[in-house]
Amino acid sequence: MAAAPQAGRVLSLPQGIPAEAACLDGHFPGRPVVPAAVLLGEALAWLAELGHEVRGVRRVKFVAALGPGEPFEIRAVPGRGGLALRWLRGDTLLAEGSVTLAPADG
Fold it and tell me: ApeI dehydratase-like domain location, by residue (predicted)?
């Protein structure tokens, strides 16, 4: 298991989610929006790449929509027993939440 980042980490996705992505099909016709589950999935995949074992999602609140191709970033900051997450498009908060991690010693 990886130790929690000390000063936080940032994942930048400058290309965003491509307009051709299957997850956007029908979500929503005329004004596509990236599904919340996709944003959460991006964060979980990133944390796994960093070596973290996510044990659970405590909460996630989505407050703004993200369109296809819009750049965004995910920030992870250590918190009690896990990581606090924030999804941002520039200065606009898209979502925030937290996850619990497996102990670093297994």
Answer: 16-76
Rg (the chain; Cα; Å): 14
Digit-coded pLDDT (tens) for 18-41: 999 999 988 888 899 999 999 999
Report the C-alpha dihedral over residues 59, 4, 50, 44, rounded to 10 degrees.
0
Per-residue b or e along 6-38, where b marks 16 or more CB atoms closer than 10 Å to that residue's CB? eeebebebeebbeeebeebeeeeeeebebbbee
Structure tokens at 20: 């051709």
The answer to whether the predicted template modeling score (pTM) of the entire model surpasses 0.85 is: yes
Do 10 and 75 form a contact (C-beta atoms < 8 A)? yes
CA 3/CA 33 separation, integer angstroms: 34
| Tokens of residue 91, six digits | 């200065």
